[in-house]
């Protein structure tokens, strides 16, 4: 594992921001799942409350998470094996989150923000299902990215995993 100041800072920042972002997405998934039993008026109203500030929280955590992971990759770019590919794989998963967010979730958010909460559109349940399906992809990718960064932070390189033990002078003399 690379222990340069840049790698250490990027590893820490990546874990913090990806962890917060992943937890946030899981919490939204729990809320969205619980809303499935309610009618369109309740769903539309809660979605508009969610959209008031949660997009800001998502941006405030996802963008620094991606940047910190890029910095970590730069810091460990000369490494081989898991020290490099774990953060690269985590970055790839975060980019999946970003692409799904930009192409599916944000356009739906924009539409939902304009809904009349007293009379949601007739296809509100289909729109909800599309948003929630895309959100599940984001949750899985974000939690996967966090897990990869966590493994990268705690793993020990094979060579350093079991340092040789010094010879015991008492035992050596008995041979």
Write the topology of this structure.
Layout (H helix, E strand, L loop, with lengths): L4 H30 L5 H36 L6 H32 L10 H31 L3 H4 L7 H5 L2
Pfam families: Anthrone_oxy
InterPro entries: Anthrone_oxy
Organism: Streptomyces atriruber
Total domain units? 1
Q: What is the share of helical residues? A: over 70%
Structural class per helix/strand content? mainly alpha
Average pLDDT works out at 91
Helical segment tally?
Answer: 6
Number of strands: 0
The main sheet comes to: none
Report the C-alpha radius of gyration, rounded: 22 Å
Q: What percent strand? A: under 5%
- Give the termini distance in whole angstroms: 38 Å
Question: What best-fitting shape do the alpha-carbon axes yield?
Answer: elongated
Protein name: Anthrone oxygenase family protein
Transmembrane segments: 12-31, 57-76, 83-108, 136-154
Keywords: Membrane, Transmembrane, Transmembrane helix
Organism: Streptomyces atriruber
Keywords for this structure?
175 residues; mainly alpha; 79% helix; elongated
Write a structural description:
With 175 residues, the protein is mostly helical. The protein has one domain (5-156). The protein has helices at 5-34, 40-75, 82-113, 124-154, 158-161, 169-173. The mean pLDDT is 91.
Explain briefly what this protein structure is.
This protein is mainly alpha-helical and 175 residues long.
